[in-house]
Design goal:
This protein is α/β, with parallel strands linked by helices. It contains eight helices and five strands, in the order E-H-E-H-H-E-H-H-E-H-H-E-H. The radius of gyration is 17 Å and the shape is globular. The chain binds adenosine-5'-diphosphate (ADP) and magnesium ion.
Length: 207
Amino acid sequence: MKGAFVTVEGCEGSGKSTQIRLLAEKLQRDGVDFIVTREPGGSDVAEQIRTIILDGKNTSMCDECEALLYAAARVQHLREIVQPALSQGKLVICDRYVDSSLAYQGAARGLGYEYIEDINSFALKEFSPNLTIFLNISPKAAFERKHGADKDDRIEALGLEFHEKVYRGYLGLLDKYPRICAVECGGSKWETNDKIYQLLKDKGIIG
Ligand SMILES: Nc1ncnc2c1ncn2[C@@H]1O[C@H](COP(=O)(O)OP(=O)(O)O)[C@@H](O)[C@H]1O
Ligand SMILES: [Mg+2]
């Protein structure tokens, strides 16, 4: 593998899309050969799998089935999009990857890290990112940022509770996986972006 694989993780509203967009502008300016992707990332097969996962009619889908389908879509995206770009020496920046399954299906849905690790390492053959950036902000703070004007009244207790579980699920991964670096992102999007850019430099991902 010649390129580098960087994934970006965090709760809803933590700023993943915003940060990836700002980072892409800088990388373009610097002449870095990179792609930005997200699962299912324009892979037809992965897209079809995702349609099954998200289909509101599939109310009987069990958590294990959901986790396995995510792993199947992930490996398809890896083979079709990520690995070809890496073998061309590109930097691949991916919005969410296996840690989302660990936090959402493993921690929040309660399947446990081990179950998710097992099925994903079976599917992905231990293929792991060179660096994972975790945008560290509590779901409540992220929510308030997003809906600043009408905070409090539209948070369903259950919804927030679920997202708190996701957040704790992410925090639990930090000690387990040294590839994951937490970036505090309570400041402005520009401050956060400077931190991310510096991190990529410190890790030798960009020159
Ligand atoms: N540092 C920041 N400060 C204030 N608002 C932000 C910041 N970063 C992102 N936002 C805003 O928060 C919302 C969620 O950001 P987004 O990038 O869509 O998050 P995600 O992709 O992680 O769900 C957007 O409305 C975005 O403009
Ligand atoms: Mg997003």
